[in-house]
Structures are given as structure tokens and as C-alpha cells.
Amino acid sequence: MVHSIGLIGCGGIASAWIRAVAAEEDARIALAFDLSREAAEQRAAETGAEAVAALEQIWDRDDVNIVVIGTPTASHPELVEQAAQAGKHIMCEKPMALDLDACRRMIAAAEAAGVKLAIGHTLRFMGAFLTCRRLVADGAIGAPVSGSVDRMGTAAPHRAGVPQASRQWRDDPANTGGMALETFIHELDFARAVFGEVASICCEVAGGSEYDGLLSPQILQGLVKFESGALVTARTGSTVALPTRGYWIGGTEGGLYFSAWNGSVAHYRHDRDEPEQVPAVEGYAHQRELRDLLAAIATGSEPENSGVNGLKNVALGLGMYRSFETGRRVECVGGLPADLAGDYRNTRWW
Question: Considering its fold, how many domains does the chain have in total?
């Protein structure tokens, strides 16, 4: 069958989904909606779709069986619930929602309607990340027992009292849930994909302190213990001029390292002096993600980026903030923080 897709949210991320859909012979974008009529019409012109003025025009179209939701995070729960009630399968951008109760409502709505819900954790499908996951699954390093996931950026010196450039809605944690949910949740998802269920979380946040008129860069750093016994350092933030981003996984028989998302993965072995450079899997990550959802629809299985997976990623991010707030380790049961209220939200950027 040919899947007809309604595009909800026509901002920057829409370009990625337009490219992914265009590469699939059995999918097309039929309708485009955005609060900005101009943005919807622009995306419609790019894809040959129809720009619509109201969401009801998507919900009421029987031929549209999938929606892609690329709107700010705070709007995700209501849109997912409406889409499910309209009988549409759903690809919703990350993070899933701002609190665990909202995530659970989204999952329940999809289950009640018998539709598939996927959350856009695209990084796990990207070249080096996917290659790394496959090497681990193939036993190339034995059992993974330690790791580090660093999404670090470089920054210019920042003077106290000078406002930083605005990223509009992303500047407000009420819209994003803060950095751990807005961007770093990709790395948290990757860590879970490799190491499994989270057992406990510790986290500290620093930065923004003044030194001779300059502000220190902000950084969030956590230690995540997994049920397998593996321990992973999770770090995001920035350093002044110093490039530090990189990802490594240590196993019982070797290790893996990479820094470029679509670059090669260095495979270290105890019996070799130099690592083997394993080329990254080629292809477009968003297309793999879309294909995974289409396969789930066809077979009745769950997509890899399921709603439950999205819930546990949000839980890990919120658990990091809760650990920082309380100064205590957050214990988890079944991958979810044991004592975290369902309506708990982060109210700070870091």
C-alpha cells in the first residue's frame, strides 16, 4: 500500500522527514499543517502536498494513515492523543513529552486506538551509532561494561551581563524540558540501546559562575548505572574552544570509539596494537527510522523507537535533573525512577 502522510509542524525538522519520505516509493506527504500558513504552504510546494488551515482536515482524511509531528515538545501529548483518536499511526519528534504522566497518556491513547506510536530518536539509526550497536550485538567487544557519551560543543568566551543569542522557543525549559531532554536525550537513548535498563542515576550541574568578568561554560554530567552492572558517564555542555565530543564503549574483550556521527568506528582489541577502523553504515537515518515504523505497521509489531522507549528516555533525563536537585542518587525500577512523581518537570535549562 501507499502510505499517505500528514505533516504537522513545518519548521526545520520537516526537511528531514520530507527527504525520508521522498526516498520511499510507498509513502508520500499528502497534507501539511503549521500555525504559520506561510510555512505550511512552503512545505506543500516542496512536496506536492496540500496545505491545510486546520488539524481537523488531517484527522478527517481517511486516506491519510500516518502523521509526522514536528512541533514544540509541550504540544506533543495533545497532538498524539488527537491523532490516535483519528486512527492515524504516529511518528512524533523527540523528546516525547515533558513529564512521565504525559508520556503514559500518549502510549495509552495509541494502544486504545490500535495505532503505532514511534518517537523520533534518530541518532540510534545514524551511521556510527548504528555501526557501534551492531558491533556490540555481534560480540565484537564481549559484554559492554563501561562507556562515555559526550555531546560537548565548543563555545566562545562569554562575558557576564551580555545576553546570549536567542533560539526562540528552545530557550524556555517550559517548552523543552531543558538540555537533557531537548538534545542530549539522543545520547541517553543511544546509551540505553547499548547497555539496557537503567538501575540508578547520579548527576551534577555546573557553570555560569563569574571569573574576572567571564562566565564559565555550563555542563551537565551524570553517572548512569545499568542493571547489567555497566557504568556510563553522560556529559553535555560546552568548553571554550576545546573540542571534546566523543563516544566510547568498553567491553570485556575490547572497546569501540568514535567522534563523528557518520564517521568510522575504531575497534580496539587486546591482541592488536592498532584499532581497526570500521566504516559507518551508509544511508539516511530518518529513512531507516521511517522504514522501521512502516514495517511495524505492516507486521503488527512495535517500532524500535516505541512509545515505551521514548518514556524511558524521558525518565532518564528527568532522573538526572532530580538527582542534581536532591543531591542524591536516583534509584530505578524497570528502567524508571522509583520515586519520581509522574508530573515532575524540569524548570531550568540545565
Answer: 2
| Segments forming the whole domain that contains residue 292 | 3-123+285-304
What is the pLDDT tens value at each position of the chain, 350 positions in all? Answer: 799 999 999 999 999 999 999 999 999 999 999 999 999 999 999 999 999 999 999 999 999 999 999 999 999 999 999 999 999 999 999 999 999 999 999 999 999 999 999 999 999 999 999 999 999 999 999 999 999 999 999 999 999 988 776 667 777 888 899 999 999 999 999 999 999 999 999 999 999 999 999 999 999 999 999 999 999 999 999 999 998 889 999 999 999 999 999 999 999 999 999 999 999 999 999 999 999 999 999 999 999 999 999 999 999 999 999 999 999 999 999 999 999 999 999 987 66
Residue 301 CA to residue 172 CA, distance in Å, equals 36
Secondary structure element (H or E) that encloses residue 225, with its range: strand 219-226
Domain identity same for 296 and 323:
no
All three cell numbers of 112: 486504545
CA distance 17 to 228: 35
Pull the grid cell for residue 122.
534518530
Whether residue 260 is contained in a domain is answered as yes
Do 42 and 132 lie in a common domain?
A: no
pTM: 0.96
Same-domain status, 269 and 216: yes
SS3 content of the chain, % helix, strand, coil (to 5): 35, 30, 35
Residue 317 three-state SS: helix
The CATH number for 292's domain is 3.40.50.720
Inside any domain, residue 349: no
The answer to whether residues 230 and 296 belong to one domain is no
One domain for residues 279 and 291: no
DSSP 124: G
Distance CA 266, CA 131 (A): 11
Residue 294 and residue 189: Cα distance in Å, rounded? 21
- Residue 323 maps to which CATH number? 3.30.360.10
